[in-house]
Amino acid sequence: MALVLPFTDTTCDLVLSDVRQVLDAHGVVALPTETYYGLAVRPTDTAALQHLMELKGRPADKPILVLIGSPDQLPQLVRSIPPAAALLMELFWPGPLTIVFPAAPDLPALLTAGTGTIGVRLSPLLQLQHLLQRTGPLTGTSANRSSEPSLDTAAAVQGALGAGVDLILDGGPTPGGLPSTMVDARDRPHLLRAGALPTDLIRAALARQGYELSS
């Protein structure tokens, strides 16, 4: 069974040492996001990434998205910030929008699945931002086994994955609903996944600056 600790604006600093201890030991932390619970490891930790893949039963050809606590953490993950990506960041971050960038060349292949790209999101959940500003970027793949439903409570994560997760940060039920919207914002913006941020808002914002969103 995983250790469960309360995770709110007031307890964020109190759990920080426990989170760091798990991450330093190549472990996995489950935490709430603005949609569902996610699984967090350091994105540069190959051993932890391997553990995460095995825990989820995730195919090696699927990249793993990363959560950041502020835009100044982005340069360590990406090779460049294309103009369309910069526009989307300005308009829709923090928010439920995962943006795909050219990946920094030294990121593990397990993270990028050899695609040369990296999906990144700045969550609007304040206690998550607060934590990530202190831990650095962490993965945010959904806290479930591949092909199974996403989970919106700490208890559900404990029931499904507790034996493989080291720490669960219990922020209460998450909103659920649709996952984050995902856009590849490199040369020509491309919708990879419709989700919580309406596609029409993204399409209109890009069109005002001369970009067409394909799908």
From TrEMBL:
It holds the Pfam family Sua5_yciO_yrdC. It catalyses: L-threonine + hydrogencarbonate + ATP = L-threonylcarbamoyladenylate + diphosphate + H2O. It comes from the Bacteria. Residues 13-197 form the YrdC-like domain. GO terms for biological process: regulation of translational fidelity; tRNA processing. One of its GO terms (cellular component) is cytoplasm. NCBIfam families: L-threonylcarbamoyladenylate synthase. This is L-threonylcarbamoyladenylate synthase. It comes from Nitrospira defluvii.
